[in-house]
Amino acid sequence: MNEINPIYAIAAYLLAIVTAALVLRAVPKISDHLEHAGNSRFASIDGLRGYLAFGVFIHHSIITWIFLSTGKIDLPPSNFYSQLGQGSVALFFMITGFLFWDRLLTQGRQHDWLAFAVSRLFRLYPLYLPLMALVFVTVFYLQNWELKDSGTQFIGQILSWLTFDRPDVNQYHQTGMLISNVTWTLAYEVFFYMALPLAGLIFVYRGGWLQTVLCLIGIYALYQLVGWEHSLKKHFLAGFLGGIAAAYWIRRPHLLAWGKTPLAGAIALLALAIAFTAFDRAFSLESLLLISLFFVIVASGNPLFGALRPRSIRWLGEISYSTYLLHGFLIWVLMQRLPLMLHLDAREIRVFLPLLALGSCLLILISSMTYLYIEKPGINAGKKTLHWLRQNRNTQKRLSETSAPLG
Questions:
Q1: Which domain covers residue 109, as residue numbers?
Q2: Does residue 395 fall inside a structural domain?
Q3: How many domains does the chain have?
Q4: Residues of the chain with pLDDT under 50
Q5: Is residue 106 part of a domain?
Q6: How is the chain split among helix, strand and coil, in percent rounded to 5?
Q7: Does 301 map to a domain?
Q8: C-alpha triplet 203, 226, 99: angle, nearest 5°
Q9: CA distance 384 to 381
Q10: How do residues 268-312 score in pLDDT, each as one tens digit?
């Protein structure tokens, strides 16, 4: 186990891509949606998401295999498998930083903060709430439906999970391991969303020194608030900076043009290869710089010699939130519960690899369904809610104007 063969990851990726292609063939309306999305100026980033979310699944599968063999939860001994998780998360943070900072730079003071807040709320929670309910039901099922904590403690646990923290539920040890603790990254995303208006006031809108000081104090207060239970680590937050840098990069015509060239694509792949093989941590300075170089080239629209263009890859990107959020529970079911039921030893490579293959296919199928029937309706509900809020606000404004006394 000291050297885990990279061929396992390659085979898992191929299974996922084939499964995605079969889903596209089975559901033609998805293809129409992807044709429209393929014209987006950030289509390369859409393709990248698919590789990243599935990479985290492989990363956690290997960690689970190691845990079953050693009883210890630790990063894989292979730099490549370690970076499939850490490097993918760093790139997810860069994608977030890039997309929203780019929008802020483009729209300036016309940025619609109400739409931003509503869209984020309806993007995160429609899928997260069913997953959270599944975790709680699983815990009580494993404990024969016995409430072991007080009602007050249980309510506190619910509230903590609603804010993406993962305390033990009803005294079930390491409850977060049921989902591979994936929600830790959402706390960082939420901090970025909440801090974005204040950062915009400092770096985009640029008021006086007093405004800058107050905004810095506000960002620090948010930093403490969001990291109340488990402090936010500054080197993880640095991942967002790579995305913000890319938002400025694409505004330099000569850099944007160079970023689309085959040479730039080759340099991007080389930088990523070095980061994923020479380092076991994504958030060290050297590794983060290499990954940031890779990302700014992708953000320029470079398709990496066609690797980001196939419809199956872009579908993996479309369902990446489902893939990321749900894969931990699927790993727990397939690699910890199922072997017990079938009297199999998942530590054996001949058992683990078929489970990894099965999980690769199932994850894409499940994620496709949850995207179509939970995520997408949730996004649409957010748009309807925003429309209702605007109508209501306009109605109240008209009423206040008509009821005002005549001068």
A1: 7-390
A2: no
A3: 1
A4: 407
A5: yes
A6: 80, 0, 20
A7: yes
A8: 45
A9: 5
A10: 999 999 999 999 999 999 999 999 999 999 999 999 999 999 999
